[in-house]
Amino acid sequence: MENAAAGPENGNVLEHLLGIEAEASALVADAQTEADRRTAESEKRNRLRCEEWYGREAAEMEAAYQNGVRNVREQYEEQLASYRKSLAAITADRNGFKAMVESFLKENKGD
Description:
Elements: H1 2-89, H2 94-107
């Protein structure tokens, strides 16, 4: 009969343990949901920081590139203008050229 009296107590214990297990399962599910939420927030925050950093870096690099292109273009224009000016300053010595060609032809006439 002792077993019969222990039977209902065992039933209560099992129900109690099943209730505790259900509460533990709910706590684990809530903890997982919270962890997922925090992970998603962290990923979003990190993605935004990365995009901001990338945007700043890309803008700085683009500005440096454009500045370099502008400097090279200015140097090119200055060098081209200087070259054109030096060409314009050259005078053609037609008489001297003619005399040199005639001298060359006379020297090499017999060859």
